Amino acid sequence: MPQQTSARKDRRGKRLMALLALAVPVLAVPLLAVPLLAVPSLAAALPAVASLAVAGPKAPNNADHGESLQVLHWWQSASERRAVDLLAERLGQQNVLWRDAMVPGGSGIGAGIVLRSRVLAKDAPEVAQLNGIVIRDWARLGLLADLDQVAARGDWDRQLLPGVAALIRPGPHVVAAPLGIHRINILFHNRALFARHGLAAPVTWAEFERAAEVLARAGVTPLAQSSEPWQVATLFETLVLAEGGAVYFRQLFQQREPAAFTDPRLGRALARLRGLKKWMGAPIRELTWAEEARKLADGSAGMLVMGDWAKGELNAMGLNSERDFGCGAVPGTAAFHLYNIDMLSMLAERPAQRAAQETLAAMVMQPAMQRDYSRVKGSVPVLRAPDLGAMDACARASWTLFATSAAGQAPSMVHRMATDETARDALVAELHRFFLNERVSVADTQRRLGVIGRRPQDR
């Protein structure tokens, strides 16, 4: 028995050390990267994040509400809050209370810090939003509850699109419940503005440039864009997809092949990112993506490159894609699907809430829940056979492409679908540096990205 106890302590110590390594991924990046506090949005968020990480939202008295689950996430905008309210309402109908723990931050950096800190403090929530391959790292540490029985009862293997099914099973167990698929490489345009100036939705970059010139002469900002780091990097990875296609995209961000970082296509994507700045207005401020969607809606900006969560926000403003705004592929990316998938994982630290966790996981996969959530959020269902009639044209195009073209799928680097957090944070910081500083050359940035992106076996 003493030997077993010692072994358990040793395993626990190793797990905590691994979690500590995950807790500070930004600090582990190569010295070429921008320091953590040089990223304005993250620096501003750290005090609030630290406060939440130390205290953690506490559970109310739920004696009259049956079971309860605290859910940590970063859904903050109007449409995201509607999606959360929908999930909470449906969960409440099954006598489980949704206790909200929202941590601000458009790309989830703050939420990740809070979650890791709370797990280390033995104050983990029951449920957390863990998008992308991050769930692989958490599962390897034994921190996620397996959902195998829920998946078996719901026949998830047959219900889910293959790419989604593989993602939620990074090892021997199912460890996440998928909510919806977002397409990121979308160019939105204000229909009224384009009609007023006789413009068609751009399909090529030449058409984009002509439309931008017309809008600029009319006093309209052609392209809404924030200087927020994750948004800059999201635009950039879209340009990489336009320049190199899905195969090259995966070589660069997923496989991180050394030759991909020296490829001229990476340099051309960087050059286009800098070239687009002239259409973004001056100064380029650090706006939330929801504020950018508002600029598109009110006509102060003519176009926006953003994931289809912006469609959910525009819908929440009372606009629709048939009448008020268009949502086509970014030029050069019509055959590709740059994607992110919303997922919820159940923390293994709270076995007393296991039944409630399984209730939430099963509810997420119900066809009606998938349909209604995606309609509010702007995403598309993760199912093989969703209700296509409930989707608008933008959603149908997204689901059809993802479901029928695995070769065209490109997992987002920025949104944690392609690479580990350490490399991701460093790449985003370097791209932000390039975007802000005109004196930094394309060649130097490409070289620095190559150093950051090195795989362990190439070092």
How would you describe what is shown here?
With 459 residues, the chain is of the alpha/beta class. Helix content is 50%, strand content 12%. It has 20 helices and 10 strands. The strands form 2 sheets. Strands 1, 2, 3, 4, 9 and 10 form a 6-stranded mixed beta sheet that branches.
Question: Descriptors for this entry?
Answer:
six-stranded mixed sheet, 10 strands, four-stranded mixed sheet, alpha/beta
Quaternary structure state of the chains depicted? single chain
Number of strands: 10
For the biggest sheet, the summary is: 6 strands, mixed
Proportion of helical residues: 40-55%
Distance between the termini: 43 Å
- Total helices: the number is 20
Secondary-structure element series: HHEHEHEHHHHEEHHEHHHHEHEEHHHEHH
- Please tell me what the overall shape is: globular
Structural class: alpha/beta
Mean pLDDT rating: 89
The radius of gyration is 22 Å
In percent, how much strand structure appears in the residues?
Answer: 5-15%
Unreliable residue runs: 1-6, 23-64
Please specify the SSE layout and strand pairing.
Elements: H1 2-23, H2 40-55, E1 67-73, H3 78-92, E2 96-102, H4 109-120, E3 127-129, H5 134-140, H6 148-153, H7 156-159, H8 162-167, E4 177-183, E5 186-190, H9 191-196, H10 205-217, E6 221-224, H11 229-254, H12 258-261, H13 264-276, H14 289-298, E7 301-306, H15 309-316, E8 325-329, E9 337-346, H16 354-364, H17 367-377, H18 393-404, E10 409-411, H19 421-436, H20 442-452
Parallel strand pairs: 1-2, 1-3, 6-7, 9-10
Antiparallel strand pairs: 3-9, 4-9, 5-7, 5-8
Helix pairs in contact: 1-4, 2-4, 3-17, 11-13, 11-19, 13-20, 14-15, 15-17, 19-20
